Amino acid sequence: MGKFLLLAFRNVFRNRRRTAMTLMMVGGGVAALLLAGGYFRFMSNGLRESTIRNGLGHLQIFTAEHFRRDEVRVLDTGIENWRQVASVANAMPHVKGIAPRVEFYGMVSNGLKSSVFIGSAVDPAAEASLGFDPSLVNGTNFTKKADGDVEALIGVGLAKSMNVKVGDGLTVLAVTSDGALNGVDVQIAGIVRTGVADLDARYLRITLASAQRLLQSDRVTNLVVGLDSTANTDIVYAELAPRLGRFSQQLTMKKWIDLATYYRQVRSMFDGIFVFMGVIVFFMVLMASVNTLLMSMFERMREIGTMLAMGTPRAWIVGLFITEATLLGLMGAALGVAGGNLLGSLLNASGLHLPPPPGYTNSIAFRVLHIPGIMVGASLLVTVSLALASIFPAIRASRLRITEALAHV
Amino acid sequence: MRETDPLVGVENVSRVFAMDHSEVKALDRVSFSVGAGEFLAISGPSGSGKSTLLNLIGCLDSPSAGRVRIEGADTSALSQGSVTRLRREKIGFVFQTFNLIPVFTAAENVEYPLLVQQAGSSERRRRVAEALASVGLAKRADQRPDLLSGGERQRVAVARAIVHRPALVLADEPTANLDTANATQLIDLMRDLNHALGLTFIFSTHDQRLLEHTARIIRLTDGRIASDSVLEGESHGQVSAACIS
């Protein structure tokens, strides 16, 4: 077995130029998969964390009713005794904090122009404790002003369409929980960017206290739970879920992944592109290697004839070719893993930034994560591809007529 | 194998090759037998059927008609696996162009038949050392074929052919690619192995240097035996082709 492997290993290096070309092709394929996979993972990890940090949190608690029907009146599916619920959740291990939210909508006007808004009311202190800081373009976050001076943050698109700036006043109109129309005057404290251009054109944020006054309700839409690490999401979910059942109002909990529709779509797009790349690399290696291995077989016909003449079982010849191809695949994979990681590190060190993708407003840092799973997967892919590519030449070699093979020049 | 069976029996063997629109009869009803320990040359001009006959005896090809028997067994009746095993265990091959595995050293080339037989490593080492010593190449064991002279390569090929103690060594034009000195050395070596180990040698050749050292010569002409001559020993005289075919 050892000598057989030695023979296969030495055969790999018989034609060094051809072997070098094959190794470059295989290594290039592996490196491409590593770079693409590492970049995609960086992007999806970044998107995951930014989605969570931008306010989604790791878990969100709602009433079960919230998902069963649309609200007839504002906040009629909201959480009533949310402070007790928050207190229970906050006592759990790994929980960093709880942020109550009210989601609402209405009209905003500056006296000259009106626009529809999508509103979010937050507790600034709770948001800050979870690191949910808005991305400010101008102005500041909420300050601790007196109640009479209600503050608002508005999206950069809404500010542009309303032609308002930091310090300007706006009237926010919404329907209360009793069905009456109510309004509050706000002063723009800051202009923010949500990262999604369509949302920027409609976004308005006020404090929870202001919203409850505006909507005439003490309820909240949901409670956002922030954890110390995304990896603990499942643990906290499993421990917190039974405790929520003790409240009279039926509550339910969603993980961030269930709520991050956009993240899931992007992740699935990345996965699709990566699988497509893998398929391309697989067939590229397969097709190119069949040709290379056939050339190798034709060059060694007389030698194969000699081995068969000496009583070598035909299965050994098949095994020899497959072993050679597998060795070639493993060496190419090692080269690709080394080259891909080196190139990835160089790209990471270069500080390269890519322009923002469609619908985004911020440029994206180009970073490649070094992911062992992708290294192993890409290496297996090319090795299997090469082994499969060798089957046809191997079978042809093993079926050679000995006398013809010996007469081959 | 019965005691009365010859080592090789060629019985009324013909071999016809189909060409595009015709057939070429390379061998035509050839019969003879070879006893154990013989040193036999198959001679004749190019195209007379020497290599074809050697291929049939070596079970590398099958006759179109007739039988080839090795130790009494009809090779045409054997399965593919049995034929492979027969070649592996009973026959050693020496080729005109040496046909050494270029990525193996001399010792590894000689070891190859033992690897195929799955012999133990210590036995392989011992037998390889003996075989290389017997052809005078013990000191060149670690050299790859490209660093050996033509004569040395052919001696490695002889060592490879005898290392697994076959009953029969078949050599196809073994001296054709060698100069006179190396050819003479190789002939002497094969003759010595024939005498010392009792190995049966059958080789095809038209090299007069080799024929001069041969005990028995079968001359082929147009695929038929023209003569079967015993040049030394006491058991045979010249036998006409008509008598044996």
Brief account:
The complex is a heterodimer of chains A (409) and B (245). Chain A has helices spanning 2-12, 16-56, 65-68, 82-90, 124-129, 156-162, 197-200, 208-215, 233-244, 256-259, 261-299, 301-309, 314-350, 372-398, 402-407, and strands at 59-63, 95-109, 114-122, 136-139, 150-155, 169-175, 181-192, 203-207, 222-227, 251-255, 353-354, 364-365. Chain A has 409 residues and is of the alpha+beta class.
Q: Quote the average pLDDT of chain B.
A: 88
The CATH homologous superfamily of chain B is named: P-loop containing nucleotide triphosphate hydrolases
The count of DSSP E runs of length 2 or more, i.e. the number of strands of chain B, is 11
Q: Which residue ranges of chain A are poorly predicted, with pLDDT under 50 across at least 5 consecutive positions?
A: none
Give the helix tally of chain A: 15
Give the overall form of chain A: elongated
Q: How many H/I helical runs of chain B? A: 8
Uncertain runs of chain B are: 234-245
Described by strand count, sense and barrel closure, the largest sheet of chain B is: 7 strands, mixed
Strand content of chain B: 25-35%
CATH class of chain B: Alpha Beta
Q: Which whole number gives the mean pLDDT of chain A?
A: 90
